Amino acid sequence: MKVKKVQLYKTVYTPDELPQTPYNEVAFVGRSNVGKSSLLNAVANNFKLAKVSSQPGKTRSINFYLVNDRFFLVDLPGYGFAKVPLKEQQRWRELIESYLKGRDRLKGVFLLVDSKVGPTEKDLQMKEWLDFFGIPYTVVATKVDRLKASQRRNLEERIKKALGGGDFKVIPFSAKTREGREVLLREIFNYIES
Ligand code: GDP
Questions:
Q1: Contact between residue 156 and residue 163 where contact means Cβ atoms under 8 Å apart
Q2: Is residue 1 a part of any domain in this protein?
Q3: Bridge partners for 80 per DSSP
Q4: What CATH number is attached to the domain comprising 13?
């Protein structure tokens, strides 16, 4: 798959703003600072769609990006930033929950986990949410360029185990070296076509 065109289609702040769209979609989620914006920019051939954050946890919106006039990449707001007030966290929860339970066209979710930090409690909760809603997902281990060779060994198995196992793949990825980009694109396409 070649990414030829990417347009911001809609930015959503509240559940009632979620659009019904004619195209299939895949969504990206993870804790703040996991490297989601960098990954999206790498996937979208540096169309500079997502702003790489200097201030983690600032984006509280869901962004719909239309790719090649054919499908959506959906950028879900990051979670797990301790300084975010409780009210804001509740708003996040409501928005994500409305999104996850109401999307017929959502074919798969990419759950981003920092390869060096490993899955956090919030990542585990997210995974359980996806299981609960019966949404297929793939885990992406981000920033693998930061790992030593010894830390790379069995990375996929270790992450899988830390998340309690299940029927999902783990893709090692680096926005810096672009490792894993082709595998990720293929996975996106498989979901969109499913
Ligand atoms: P987001 O908050 O999840 O959107 O994360 P960002 O994409 O803004 O990245 C957070 C920080 O991690 C930034 O300082 C990035 O430069 C850095 N980062 C993101 N991806 C990579 C990567 O693949 N390798 C390395 N070494 N750093 C990365």
A1: no
A2: no
A3: none
A4: 3.40.50.300
Does a structural domain hold residue 148? yes
44 by DSSP, 3-state: which? coil
Instruction: Tell how far the Cα of 16 is from the centroid of ligand 1, in angstroms.
Output: 31
- Name the closest-CA residue to atom 6, ligand 1: 35
The tens digit of pLDDT for each residue in 20-74 reads 999 999 999 999 899 999 999 999 886 666 565 545 445 588 999 999 999 999 9
Q: Please give the tally of structural domains in the chain.
A: 1
Q: Please report, for residues 49, 134, 194, the alpha-carbon distance to residue 156 in angstroms, rounded to integers and kept in the order given.
A: 28, 22, 24
Residue 155 CA to ligand 1 centre (angstroms)? 19
Neighbours of 64 (CB within 10 A): 21
Range of the domain at 78: 6-193
For atom 27 of ligand 1, the residue with the nearest CA is: 143
